[in-house]
Amino acid sequence: KQWYQRRVRGITQSTGAAVATAKGVIQQFSEALGERQFFAGDAISCTDFWIFETIDKFERLEPGTLEQDNILRFRKRIMSLPTLHKYFTDPKSSRYLPLNNKRASFK
């Protein structure tokens, strides 16, 4: 049990460093996105879903991580896609499970 408690403390302490690093990466995403709708232009691509998943995890981990207007609009655009909207708004969807697993110290 002690090793688990030490592990949880370590994860909690390293979250701040991970978020700080993520902010730099998200800024690079913002610069790459510019004013386009999606990263590859006007059409959605698999890259958009990968980047969405990445930025969404950090925003869920530390609300307020996303500061760039174009990234906030991009996230909202993905979450508003008709085929995904139900998933994002249904409280029973797997989206509301812990990010890591049942032992994760964060959700």
Query: How far is it from the N-terminal to the C-terminal residue, by CA?
Result: 21 Å
- Helicity range of the residues? 55-70%
Q: How many extended strands? A: 0
- Structural class of the helix and strand makeup? mainly alpha
Query: What percent of residues are in strands?
Result: under 5%
The description of the largest β-sheet is:
none
| General shape | flat
Care to describe what's here?
- The chain is mostly helical and 107 residues long.
- The protein is flat.
- The mean pLDDT is 82.
Short description:
By secondary structure, the protein is an all-alpha fold. It has four helices and no strands.
What's the topology here?
Blueprint: H1 2-33, H2 46-61, H3 69-79, H4 82-89
Question: What brief labels describe this structure?
Answer:
mainly alpha; 4 helices; 107 residues
